[in-house]
Design brief:
The protein has 122 residues and is an alpha+beta fold. Helix content is 20%, strand content 25%. The chain has one domain (14-108): START domain (Alpha-D-Glucose-1,6-Bisphosphate, Chain A, domain 4, 2-Layer Sandwich). Mean pLDDT is 82; it is low at 92-96 and 118-122.
Length: 122
């Protein structure tokens, strides 16, 4: 299995960062158009970007305010069974995407159309 890691320093508490990477409202502020789920082990999440990108995942690892991992259960073929997650540490505050970094540090929520420009949405 291939692994891709990205690290960012974020000027915020672990609790605030974890909320942004583990709750539907948090995801909606920096990544998804609409998200649902409860941050509990084995819970199912729906990551909705458009009708074409209406994906589901299951939480397969969870340590509150430290780590969360999702396994994709319904997605485009290239994402099926993919694991993605976040680990927060005192040194780096985790593996966080640029959009999340900007949201956490500035509090600015970009319109959905301005996020995820690397994929074409319907």
């Amino acid at each position: 299995m291939n692994t891709i890691s990205q690290g960012f320093f974020i000027k915020s508490s672990k609790e605030k960062i974890f909320e942004a990477i583990s709750t539907p409202n948090g995801f909606n502020n920096w990544w998804t158009k609409k998200c649902s789920g409860i941050p509990k082990l084995d819970a199912e999440y729906n990551f909705y970007f458009s009708e074409q990108y209406n994906w589901k995942a299951k939480i397969t690892q969870l340590i509150p305010n430290q780590e969360i991992e999702f396994t994709m259960t319904e997605a485009s073929e290239s994402w099926e069974n993919t694991l993605f997650g976040f680990k927060l540490t005192d040194d780096t505050n985790g593996n966080i995407f640029v959009e999340l970094k900007e949201y956490i540090e500035t509090g600015v929520v970009l319109e959905f159309s301005q996020r995820n420009k690397h994929i074409e949405l319907c």
